[in-house]
């Protein structure tokens, strides 16, 4: 498929992927500069690496439905929950965020 014939949802999917990649690596850099520790820095960098891998898989396969489902599950149930628990702990807003995400 030529670049001019890409549908709107694929363009939005590309934009969201690219913004997510930039946000992951910039957040990792900020965590490192602020001295927040190795675990938050590595976790956000790992999210960026996984996102780059998923973006490459999307560009090769053009399988929008499966990859968007993988991204939603990964971000909702793995990444956001682990970041919330590591950065906030069980006593802060983590239980509320967990309930809202699961809902």
Describe this structure in words.
The protein has 103 residues and is mostly helical. It has one domain. It contains four helices and no strands. It has helices at 8-34, 38-61, 64-88, 94-102. Helix 2 packs antiparallel against helix 3.
Please give the largest β-sheet: none
Count of distinct structural domains: 1
Structural class: mainly alpha
Could you tell me the strand content as a percent range?
under 5%
| Rg estimate, integer Å | 16 Å
In whole angstroms, the N-to-C terminal distance is: 38 Å
* Number of beta-strand segments: 0
- Please give the share of residues in helix: over 70%
What general form does the structure show? globular
Q: SSE order, as H and E?
A: HHHH
Total DSSP helices: 4
**Average residue-wise pLDDT:** 77
* Low-pLDDT stretches: none
Which SSEs are present, and which pair or pack?
Blueprint: H1 8-34, H2 38-61, H3 64-88, H4 94-102
Concise synopsis of the structure shown:
By secondary structure, the protein is mostly helical.
Keywords:
single chain; 103 residues; mainly alpha; 83% helix
